Amino acid sequence: MTRRTLLLTVAVAATATAIAASPASAGVHATTVETVPVTVDGSNQSGWWNPLAVVGDETYFAYNVPAGIPNRHQVHLAVRSSDGEWTSGCLRDDLGGCVDYFNDNGHNQPSIAVDGDGNIHAFVSMHHEDWNYFRSTVPGDVTSLVEVSAEMPDGGGTISYPITSVGPDGDVWLMVRTGPDHLARRDGVLYHYDLDAGTWARETVIASATNFSVYPDDLIVDDDGLVHVLWEWHRWAAGPYRHLGSYAVWNPATQAFSDVAGSALPTPVRPDTEGAVVFQPFTGDESMTSTTPAFQTAKMAVQDGELAGIVYRYSTAGSTQFDLKWARWTGAEWVRETLAGPTSLGAGVDTIAAMDATAHGSKTRAYGVLTVPVCGVATSQVVMFESARGRTGWAVEAIGEPMTGQQRMRAAVGGDGDDVLYLSAPATAGGGTLRYAEVPRSGQKRTGGSLDTIVASMRSGECGS
User: Fold this and answer.
1) Quick one: which H or E segment has residue 211?
2) What tens digit of pLDDT does each residue of 159-216 get?
3) Which of 242, 265, 309, 408 has the fewest beta carbons closer than 10 A?
């Protein structure tokens, strides 16, 4: 069986070595969590990245590890086999050594994809600089990645925030932000790897406007080959408090964009483009220069070619804390709801720019991360919100154990509908921790749970324990 066939017959292994969470109710199949036998660098944290790929019964992780040089990291990949064994390797230079890069939290992190022939693609450690692109020389072999940056179009550019996805034909798609700064703009650009030709090409400019910068958030290619793109805007050149969360769909066959309602959009999309593009508009006196209200980081779930929903962070006027919110399209309008409002959960509680969303069968999920001060130390907890067809509201469940410092994550749906999670806790004492989790969808629907209970449990830890 080829890797291309595997992409069409995905099945995720149900084996894990440590159960770290209990069922939310009788008949609900429990989440399992295991620690990957690696130590990650303190820089292994981001909100936009895609360091996770699930192919057949194998799971691929990409992560930064300490380089042995102050303020620098290496990029490693690991693959988990169907029997739970991990194999790892580093990205190598021309002499066979492991390459290293400057630490830059939130920027110099890896995104990967595995194409239909099993070739592993890795885009790493780029913050407004030229391509750092590696590919395996042996399909599925995480020890065989070498640099092939010269194959990328638009060489010499200023690349940031690479986000990857794989289409049903095994082609790889890539969304990045790039210049040109001399024109006072930073654009969102889409690239396409043709598996049959073995070449990359620029597909289109997704979003662009003078005096504006695009921040990529997510990229999903659905089963029909349509490319769903998610991004946010900031006043040129850069800043952490962004605005106007936006969504559009690219049709490679017609070379055109449409909005969530199916209406045609111009190419590229602008902040003021008419149509159902912006799912989180300005509120109150918000503007492109506001620090509050502000938007920060988003992920989406797509099911059967339709947008299931978008999870994102948004701060209200006058607040420095970010709510975790959910937006969906009703068929006539965008509706938004708050999943987690930190101000209602007690002193010191906030969300982190780490989230994801998945949809399969009758269940849609949003993931987020809460941070709570425990004995004067920031502690974080991954939380899942599950909505089931035929049931109102969201079930709430903690995933794994609370960890010291911030946690970052990604999620993917396996062939049996289970979610596979990548959980990074880079501030763990003694060395950063990377964990693998499986969250089954089989069994009864989850019910109940509360954020208040989760936060209270986090606060209950004994100081010095």
Assistant:
1) none
2) 999 999 999 999 999 999 999 999 999 999 999 999 999 999 999 999 999 999 999 9
3) 265
Distance CA 182, CA 351 (A): 36
Q: For residues 358 and 338, what is the distance between their CA atoms, to the nearest angstrom? A: 17
Coil vs helix vs strand at 182: helix
Residues of the chain with pLDDT under 70: 1-27, 462, 464-465
Helix (H) or strand (E) holding 131: none
Return all residues near 331 (Cβ < 8 A) that are at least 6 apart: none
Give the 3-state secondary structure of residue 122.
strand
In the chain, domain spans:
3-459
Query: φ and ψ at 451, to 5 degrees?
Result: -65, -35
The rounded distance, in Å, linking the Cα atoms of 80 and 59 is: 5
The pair of three-digit structure tokens given for residue 112, joined into one six-digit string: 């990967």
165-186 in b/e burial notation, b at 16+ Cβ within 10 A?
bbbeebbbbbbbbbbeeeeebb
Instruction: Tell me the CATH number for domain 3-459.
Output: 2.120.10.10
Buried b (16+ CB within 10 A) or exposed e, 313-328: bbbbeeeebbbbbbbb
Q: Read off the amino acid at residue 425.
A: A
Cα separation, 245 vs 237, whole angstroms: 17
For residue 277, give the amino acid letter: V
